[in-house]
Each structure stands twice: as C-alpha cells, then as structure tokens.
UniProtKB/TrEMBL annotation:
Top-rank taxon, per record: Bacteria
UniProt EC number: 2.1.1.34
Official protein name in the record: tRNA (Guanosine-2'-O-)-methyltransferase
UniProt GO BP: methylation; RNA processing
Length: 182
C-alpha cells in the first residue's frame, strides 16, 4: 500500500477502496450491441477532444452516441476512446432528419441549451423511456432549426463568469442525471 493510501486509511478506517476485480464483477458482463435507451447526440461538434471524452462517458452510463458523419469525427473518436473496445456509435448524415425520426419513433428529445423554459439540471428526472440528449455546437449551441424538435430543454446552472460548459462536460453531467446515477 502506498504511503499516501496508508495515511488516508489510518485517518478514516471506514473508507474501503474497492479493488478492480470487485468493480468488474459488479458491472455489466460484456459490451452491448446497442443499449438504445439513452443516446448522447453531439450533432454539431466543434472540437474532437470533446467527442472522445463524451464517448468514454457514454460507456460509463450505458449510453450510445450519435455523431455526424464528418471526416474528422472518426479519428477524434478513435483517439478519444481510451477504453480500446467498441462503444455504440450511431452515424448521422442528416441531423435534423435524424432528430425528427427519433421523435416519430417515440423518443424523448432533450436539448442541453440556455432557454427560457429550460429545466434546471438538478430537477431533471432520470430517463424512463428512450431518450436522446442533444448537445449543440460549443460556441453557438443547438442549431436554431433543431430547437422546435426538442421536447424539453435542460440548463446547467453556473455561478462563474463563463456562459456555458464544453460539450464533454455538459453532456457528461446530463447523461449521468438521465441514467439515474446522480
């Protein structure tokens, strides 16, 4: 045991760090073909690093990811996938058409956006049905023509000077809440 961990254990003997073997045993047994219950949809991405980080979150919460078929997105996902095993990715050619089809299929479409009618993240309930979490462009947000396709907008409260969080952080917070893990 490292000196730091030993000191920490001595200071608070009631905290036990779970070994990797135990963590693996308690989690799902194998990868999925497609959970298809919760989908992160960064349909207007700007930075590839955010996509790789969000892909890792999708694995952690049991979500799939829908991304546009831009040439650079494939490489961004490959570089960002530190798990080195397949994570469910849906390729989208037409973001607006795809969102319309998701609604027609009965999915709840939630946008992470600063809007007058937005629900605060803390008040967002866990997803009980197929849900698509739409994430906008890092600078411009969700495309204006897509706003009418949202069933609900969720806002992440901030007290700092920034206007918003990057797509990876915002998406991760919303996905954990929708997955019922927060």
């Amino acid at each position: 045991m490292s000196p730091r961990r030993a000191a920490s254990a001595a200071a608070s003997p009631s905290i036990r760090v779970r070994p990797r073997r135990e963590l693996r045993r308690d989690r799902r047994r194998r990868s999925h073909a497609c959970w298809d219950h919760l989908i992160a949809a960064p349909l207007w991405p700007l930075h590839g690093a955010n996509l790789g980080t969000l892909l890792r979150t999708c694995d952690a919460v049991g979500a799939c990811m829908a991304v546009p078929r831009f040439g650079w997105v494939t490489e961004a996902l490959r570089r960002g996938d530190t798990l080195r095993r397949p994570v469910c990715v849906h390729w989208v050619n037409d973001p607006l058409g795809w969102l319309e089809r998701q609604r027609d299929r009965g999915s709840q479409v939630i946008g992470v956006e600063l809007a007058d009618e937005a629900v605060r993240l803390g008040d967002l309930p866990a997803a009980r049905a197929r849900t698509v979490a739409v994430l906008g462009h890092e600078r411009d947000g969700i495309a204006p023509e897509a706003l009418d396709l949202l069933d609900l907008a969720v806002e992440i409260p901030m007290v700092g000077t920034g206007h918003s969080l990057n797509v990876a952080v915002a998406g991760s917070l919303v996905l954990y809440k929708l997955a019922g893990l927060l």
